[in-house]
Amino acid sequence: MTNKRIFVTAHKAQYAVSTLCRVMEISRGWLYGFRASQPARDQRKADRSARDLELLPKIKTFFKASKKCYGSKRIHQDLLADGETVSERRVARIMKENKVSPRLNKRRKPVTTDSNHKMRPSPDLLEQEFHCLTPNTVWLADITYIDTDEGWLYLPLWAVQANTSCLGCFGLKLVCVSSSQPPIRNRCDDRLNPPNTPVAITAS
Prior knowledge:
By secondary structure, this protein is α+β, with helices and mostly antiparallel strands. It folds into two domains: 2-97, no CATH class; 106-204, no CATH class. It is 37% helix and 14% strand. The chain has six helices and four strands. A four-stranded mixed sheet has the order 3-2-1-4, with no helix packed on it. A hairpin with a 5-residue loop joins strand 2 (151-160) and strand 3. Helix 1 (2-11) packs antiparallel against helix 2, helix 4 (38-65) crosses helix 6 (88-97) and helix 5 (72-81) packs across helix 6. The two termini are 66 Å apart.
């Protein structure tokens, strides 16, 4: 519609306005009404700009209080809690126009392996022989990590290769190895692992 209005305005000295409106498929009432309402549109634009300038300091204050982590949704919630009546779309526009955007932190991955040591690696007792039918001769072990509010929680788990029965699992906030013996050995019942019985442990 804006292009049609510009076209009619540019050619009204050469052709009748009624003819131009008929060619452009617009009404003369809309054309004249647009001109008459221009002051009101200018006033609305000025009021919108003044409102944006009023909200910008509060947006920056809440953004700084969040350590530059909050986006438009949380800033909008803070403004509503502060008594402001504003839409989330408007908050997002103001933040974008003034380059108020949360910083994107690269996700930190936990470290589950410490290879910076001079300790001798454990011997490979399994030797790639994964088919085991004798209970309590081969154990499977694995570890994963879970992101919690208190930090990374490490979850190790171990099972018997013959029947894949789970022997146990527990949560750790830190992973450390203080001896050459597997830490699981002291946590299992002697009936599952009799003393002086060699056991091959492999990571699945």
